[in-house]
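Lab notebook, bench 4. We co-purified these components, and the gel suggests they stay together. Before we commit to crystallization screens, I want a quick structural picture of the whole thing.
Request: model the full complex, all chains together.
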Amino acid sequence: MEHKIIDTKEVVIRFTGDSGDGMQLTGTLFADASALYGNEISTFPDYPAEIRAPQGTVAGVSGFQVHIGATEVKTPGDLCDVLVAMNPAALRANAKWAKPGASIIIDTDSFDEKSIQKAGFQTLDPISELKLEDYNIVASPITTLTKESLKDSGLDNKAIIRSKNMFVLGMCYFMFTRPIEFTEAYLEKKFAKKPHLIAPNKKVLNDGYNYAHNIHAIPSTYRIEPAKQEKGVYRNISGNVATAWGLLAASEKSGRPLFCGSYPITPATVILEELAIYKQLGAKTVQCEDEIAGICTSIGAAYAGNLAVTSTSGPGLSLKSEALGLAMITELPLVIIDVQRSGPSTGIPTKTEQTDLNQALYGRNGECPVMVMASRTPSDCFRAAFYAAKYALEHMMPVILLSEGFLGNGSEPWKIPSMAEYPAINPPIIKECEGKFKPFERDPETFVRKWALPGTPGLEHRVGGLEKTPAGAVSSDPQVHEKMVAARAAKIAKVADCIPDLEVIGEQSGDVLIVGWGGTFGHLYTATKNLLEQGMKVGFAHFDYINPLPKNTAEVLSKFKKIIVCELNSGHFVNYLRAKEPDFKYEQLNKVQGQPFMVQEIVDAVKAL
Amino acid sequence: MKYTLQDFKSDQEVKWCPGCGDHAVLASVLRSMPAVCEELGINKENLVFVSGIGCSSRFPYYMDTYGFHGIHGRATALSTGMKVANPELCIWQMTGDGDSLAIGGNHFIHAIRRNININVILFNNRIYGLTKGQYSPTSKFGLVTKTSPYGTIEQPFTPGQLVLGARGTFFARTLDYDLALNQEILPIAAKHKGTSIIEFCTNCVIYNDGTHKEWSARELRDDTTITLRHGEKMLFGKNKEKGIVLDKETLQLKVVKLGENGITEKDILVHDAHTDNVGIHTMLVNMKYPDYPVALGVIRDVEDKTYDDNLWNQVCEVEAKAKIKSVDELLHSGATWTVEK
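Here is the predicted assembly.
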């Protein structure tokens, strides 16, 4: 058979296997190699909560989807062109994500009778049972080939079998004409302290590459040319890392040392882990005894003058509610990052959702509005975290930044910004005053109070959870309370003067306005482009700022005949808009499956309006 | 001295009930602060009073210092954040038996375990006062309260035992009204590097009047309490005629009388607050009246590394070795690629 190279604009590949098969690493290496090659990429790790669920079961299947393109790539892709299934359970769990006719690489060594039964198949022919006969099944004895490749490596059998993911990675590099050097360099760095592992890993990677080249099972390879990207220096970045770095950037710009008190929770933990590394940039982290201590140590640090941050996910935000009220009434700067996951309660902890919006907006006792923002893509988490910190520090208030598991774990190439492009951050620190310092006296324009740091002579004052007069005296006077409630709310509403206007992508007026917020940006953007190409008059408005809303919100909404609000919950944002902007009629598209939207779902919903 | 008591008094009206033991604690703290500032070489603006919720937690409003009245049980976490953020601050945390041993129990034990350098005054009146009289984690077994109309059915904590169990480095016990002893203890607690827990046995005149009375009453105290001082013999009684020895057969503490059964002062234990051995300190904090006199004074004062020092040392070490010195450098670290046109 003659070998063909097919030029294609984009390809989606999904690596799946047992939790212990190293599929997350394989997918990450493939994504990094593609990014370094110059492709646009977007990734989506889809893994179970269990670290090593029972081997060979569907519950233990771990997946990593990568979308690579020669043009704009904004989502990890709906369905995949190539599925790698390292065992029968992975095939059973993931066949539904393969496009009709997709190539499916399976390790035939793992398709023995016992494993097939363990995966829950009724027959011993998984391909027929899943009706995959028309797919391009690349059945290769990957384990045997890996053993053969490494028989003289001196490694023990266990270590050899563990290398089979490198064999598959090599196969994929051939299929998608990826350069192998980036990964070789990675292996050299990773095993710098175990040099005896470098050569075997490189060998098995190359053997996989050559094997795919030599067999005729793969009729063609794909070539995805580097994307036309803006000039600049790029890197690959995940949402959680970008969030942590955005906070470090805000710390540098504001001159306020960074403090992060947090408790490990999926899928937010990487933020704490990442900040724990950068002590040289002044970041201090405390891994607390619980979520409440996470926010309370941060409030203490804020009182003492730090840029204070606590990172969490939905259940942790619930635990932090009371203390969030304390930060709000004491008017201290604090950034709370909620990397949302499927709920309620423990829910599906590794799956993505947007179901914490109501909690972020309303989940506290008393009159307690807080600023709520959202990140839209993995790399956008940097910008969002920077601005969350800027607004918290300059307006003396807690800010909730909503991220999502999809963003936190997902990654994409990012054109590295220069810190010179980012604005200054000027917290209202006071060094001296005439007479007694009055902690809750406000700027008449912004309603922002001054920040007096302990250690400053002459500004001794008390703050706390009890209602106070502007001078800082405890008060249960009905008029004082009502005035203070109004002043705190007004301060937050006035942030609308500082945030950017809502932008519309696509048609600026027309038939349908697609509305979203948070991590659905890529899917909504791609759907919008798709609909525009089909000649529909659609616009797309994505809200980075939820409370307060951008000042031009009503103006934007008024320009379209229909409005459809798309979100991964049962309608939190659409109901918020109904309350805030009641003059419009809203349609909605909701999905609560612990999975991102598929572009096609959005396209279909808009067309059905 | 640079300061007097008046420098620390705030203009707020003190709102505790007349006769409440908290007044005496406030007086003790106000009187101790000039000495604390002197001994630590710090200014008033470096003092922060932090509290949770409860009667005692109103304390920060009564001090003309920086202060933070937090939420129930969380003062320890607030204090931890403040101290890590600014180690120059001298933090005094005011908390009650409900605040720190019930709702805030988790933060309390972990702060002690970490040995963060803060001072905690634990007001132990063995009752919830601000919610009007429910039993607390230190209420005596069987105490009749509004939520235990037939008597409590749970055993109380002995705070000192909990502190030592959480690997506390400093524990002192005192009585609300003993201003002289309090002024002796508070500067020692302030000087201790690590979490200093000072249990003040306080009296709630309204809901648990006389809870410590059987041993704390002035007229009984010579025989019902023993004040421990590092390096001194464990003697008590009006004429110091009684003492504490270790019974070598049962390995338990025993009260003896000098002159009886050939006991001389030489046989009496010398208090060593600085020994790392937690065994003897545990026996001392657990001495209960009437079998023993109740131990007051600084029972344990052991040097150990503090969390805040460890963290700052780590920051300095990493800084000295780090290649990345700015966010711009961070953004360009690791694998990057350049798009030329």
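Residues 5-211 of chain B form a domain with the Rossmann fold fold (CATH 3.40.50.970). Worth comparing against the SEC data before the next meeting. The first helix of chain B runs from residue 21 to 40.
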